[in-house]
Amino acid sequence: MDKFNAENERIKRDYAEFLREADQKSEATVRGVEKAILRFEEYTGFCDFGRFNRNQAKGFRAELSSPADESKRLGNSTVLSTLKAVQRFFRWLSVQPGFKSKIDTNAIAYFNLSEKDIRAATSSPSKPSPTMDQLKRALASMPSETILDKRDRAVFALLMMTGIRDNAAASLLLGHVDIDRQMIVQDPKTVRTKNSKLIESVLLPLGLEIEGVLFSWVGYLRDELRWQPDDPLFPQSRHRIDPQRGPVVDGIRRQVWSNSQPIREIFKRAFADAGLPYFTPHRVRNTVVEYAYLTCRTPEEFKAFSQNLGHESVVTTLSSYGQIPLARQRELIRNAGKSRDLDAKLERLLEVLDRSED
């Protein structure tokens, strides 16, 4: 069986360029699409794209959904994303010169999953998020002796107080911290924010101790190292070769992290040292929303939290991060109406006390 089709490769290069330049997709998204198309090619034996037909679409969908080799079974969400990526590719190809008469546009619809399969692919059990107390416990367990320890603690404290996305945090500069206004300005010109949005995040009032972890780090960089606003807030670790010990990590260097992997490693170590299960940095966003549930008293206050996370609509906050933890859900349902009963009892008690004083 062929493992390469020169004409297909040319078409895939053109499509990748379209995704990057016209559709403005990220490199990670483009790589994911290329992987999906390659899966389709492998299924068809690298048949020319111009010979696409409904049987190929139906067969590929069936092969992904119920593979003959169970060891190759993909998750429901991966099946859905793969089919959608390939479907979008053939829609694009169907309007390209030389393919308008070759591609049966009706056949493209045969990549669709049933509504039942789509629901299975898009729904999943709720993932646990750390409580604010667990985050405080993890932060308290982190060492603070070396400069790298202090940097790591500052990263952890920042995510606690903002719920900032880890990739954005990894690209922050020193000038993005506004201590006077107690906020972080995520400027998309230099910060890797989602959809290149400007996000101004006010720090949650979690206490002077947690604020001090971040502010003392900022002060160290500004006052002792004399770093400037365009220097990294969380610089990379500096590596060198020691004649006796070999490769060692020794200090920091003036360069931002290229991705969020170092922050995930910081979280793994922090939770492990605290004897807690690992939670990804992204789950802290759920923690911030849960904190909002407990503290907000007006719709305006919750809207402020929503904007802090970079959401244009409160609906996004509620639908993406607003799921009530199961334990809290159980507590609310089991105690529904009891608070009103208690309020009524307190009012009657106060009336009795007032009468006795008269």
Describe the structure.
26% of the residues are buried. Helix 4 (76-93) crosses helix 6 (115-122). The chain starts with 5 loop residues before the first helix and ends with a helix. A 3-stranded antiparallel sheet has the order 1-2-3, with no helix packed on it. It has a two-stranded antiparallel ribbon with strand order 4-5. It has 358 residues and is mainly α. It folds into 2 domains: 6-122; 132-294, Intergrase catalytic core (hpI Integrase, Chain A). The longest helix has 20 residues, at 338-357. It is 55% helix and 8% strand. The chain is globular and about 80 Å long.
- Beta-strand residue percentage: 5-15%
Tally of helical segments:
16
Instruction: Quote the distance from N terminus to C terminus.
Output: 98 Å
**CATH C-level label of the largest domain:** Mainly Alpha
The percentage helix is 55-70%
Q: In one word, what is the shape?
A: globular
As laid out across the biggest beta sheet, the strand order is: 1-2-3
Instruction: Please tell me the total number of domains.
Output: 2
**Quantity of strands, as a count:** 5
The CATH architecture of the largest domain comes to Orthogonal Bundle
CATH superfamily of the largest domain: Intergrase catalytic core
Which sequence of SSEs, written as H and E, runs from N to C? HHHHHHHHHEEEHEEHHHHHH
Question: Using only CA atoms, what is the Rg?
Answer: 27 Å
Derived structural class: mainly alpha
Largest sheet: 3 strands, antiparallel
Return residue spans where pLDDT drops below 50 for at least 5 consecutive residues: none
Any idea of the CATH topology of the largest domain? Answer: hpI Integrase, Chain A
Overall mean confidence score, pLDDT: 88
